[in-house]
Amino acid sequence: MRDIYFVLLIFVTNSKLINGFLFDKQGLILVPSVAFRDHSSTSNSLSSDWILYIQGWYYEENPFHALRMEKTLEVIIQKDLYQNRIKMFTADDKKREDVCIDGLNQEMCIRTDDDGHINNIFTMTNQEIELFRQSGGYDGKILFQVSVLNRNLQAIGDIYLCDDHGITFMSDIDDTIRIMNVTSLMRTLINTFSREFKAVSGMADIYRYWERKYNATFTYLTGAPDQLYPFLKEFLDREHFPSGSTHMRHFKWLNANFLDFFVSSTHAKKIDTLHMFLQSTYHRLFVLIGDIFQSDPDVYASIYAQYPNRIARIFIRKYKDDDNGQKRLETIFKDIPRTKWATFETGDDLPKDIFM
After folding, report:
1. Which GO molecular-function terms appear in the entry (predicted)?
2. Which of 273, 277, 267, 283 minimizes the C-alpha distance to 332?
């Protein structure tokens, strides 16, 4: 019995040493966020201050989780895998760690939350905004830096300005601008971990056209995990989609089956994000773009019912021969004027003038 305890003691001790070596690859991901006018002390008048949001993630790679997921995916999809995507998706959250936000008019140090998230909300005057404003989106953007205390680890992030007036195109990503086949778990896993991300034909072209024509800002909503944001950014940049804030979910490795995550609902997350934009801007118009393959029509119908004068148009991607899908949309959108919504399959089907 003493021999067994001795072997266990050696195993535990060595595991700690191994863990200390293997788990040392850390990193920061800063997901583009947004800033709105501060209306907390004004009433329907132009505020001179801004509220800025920061969203990011501090992580540490977990080789054991990565290997476990890799072996599972090899059995399920039986195709070559993108190792870096698996490493990021399975990384551990760095909880309650001190990080500092700087590069602006003030330095702020905060702690990551229990998901390793870097979340902070702060204000800047319009004069300060103008001092730091850079090109990016129609209204411009602010750059900032996050660094980890006592480590040589930094990242640069973007905050896109969204003023009270103007027009914002709020676009879903999966099966709206990026082919994912979300109705099939197998195809979703293949397209996420085994293939280069592929764009829906013509979408980047029409988005860039709208950006120029309407001096528009863009915002992206997706149920994809923020752990994979670096690869999503590569896709958006490669295909030349307009830049803008991006709003994603977070996968918790210890609390959920990763297969379940990819078929779970994104309804609540999208509703919350849309409410944030509409409640934080007084006169801005919004164009909502999504697909029929999940809950986008239900989400957009709900938002339209609450803000009918703020939603300029709704565009839903579906296949042209999907008659059942068309009937579903006509039911969901029965209280929305027919001139306010339309369907498309590729970017070439979308109108250049959204107000005609």
Report:
1. phosphatidate phosphatase activity
2. 267
Whether residue 225 is contained in a domain is answered as: yes
**What does the alpha-carbon distance between residue 269 and residue 112 come to, in Å, rounded to a whole number?**
20
Residue pLDDT, tens place only, 98-153: 999 998 888 899 999 999 999 999 999 999 999 999 987 788 999 999 999 888 99
Looking at the structure of the chain, the number of domains it has is 1
Q: Is residue 342 part of a domain?
A: yes
| Strands (DSSP E) found in the chain | 26-31, 33-37, 49-60, 92-93, 98-102, 108-111, 117-125, 133-134, 141-148, 154-162, 167-172, 217-225, 244-249, 285-291, 311-317, 341-344
Contact indicator for 35, 159 with CB cutoff of 8 Å: yes
Range of the domain at 190: 167-349
d(CA 206, CA 198): 16
108: in domain:
no
CA dist 324 and 106 (Å) reads 55
Domain CATH number, residue 306: 3.40.50.1000
- Dihedral sign of CA atoms 251, 29, 209, 347 in order: negative
Dump pLDDT digits (tens) for 184-234: 889 989 999 999 999 999 999 999 999 999 999 999 999 899 999 999 999
> Under 8 Å CB-to-CB from 238, ≥6 apart: which residues?
none
Residue type, 115: D
DSSP 315: E
Whether this prediction's pTM lies above 0.85 is answered by: yes
Instruction: Name the pairing type of β-strands 33-37 and 92-93.
Output: unpaired
